């Protein structure tokens, strides 16, 4: 089974849920992830599997980056607020 047969069987994922989570946690990176996710969905709809596979990988890494950065920023803010409250 070659790579082309795999692409024909199952369309690449658009990772829309990851993109929405990235959007909620880190707005600027989440917007980029959502744009790539929609582009992946449209590429799947028009049977452009090569472009869909490429943008699917991109949206996955961008969304994970947004989730990690957003979580780190949120955790840092919460720690700083707790330290401020305990210092009073």
UniProtKB/TrEMBL annotation:
<feature type="transmembrane region" description="Helical">
    <location>
        <begin position="16"/>
        <end position="39"/>
    </location>
</feature>
<comment type="similarity">
    <text>Belongs to the CD225/Dispanin family.</text>
</comment>
<keyword id="KW-0812">Transmembrane</keyword>
<protein>
    <recommendedName>
        <fullName>Transmembrane protein 233</fullName>
    </recommendedName>
</protein>
<dbReference type="Pfam" id="PF04505">
    <property type="entry name" value="CD225"/>
</dbReference>
<dbReference type="GO" id="GO:0016020">
    <property type="term" value="C:membrane"/>
</dbReference>
<keyword id="KW-0472">Membrane</keyword>
<keyword id="KW-1133">Transmembrane helix</keyword>
<feature type="transmembrane region" description="Helical">
    <location>
        <begin position="59"/>
        <end position="83"/>
    </location>
</feature>
<dbReference type="InterPro" id="IPR007593">
    <property type="entry name" value="CD225/Dispanin_fam"/>
</dbReference>
């Amino acid at each position: 089974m070659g790579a082309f047969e795999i692409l024909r069987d199952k369309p690449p994922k658009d990772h829309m849920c990851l993109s929405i989570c990235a959007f909620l946690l880190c707005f600027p990176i989440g917007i980029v992830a959502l744009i790539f996710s929609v582009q992946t969905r449209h590429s799947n709809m028009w049977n452009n599997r090569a472009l869909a596979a490429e943008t699917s990988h991109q949206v996955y890494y961008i969304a994970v980056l947004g989730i990690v950065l957003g979580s780190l920023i949120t955790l840092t803010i919460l720690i700083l607020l707790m330290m401020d409250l305990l210092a009073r």
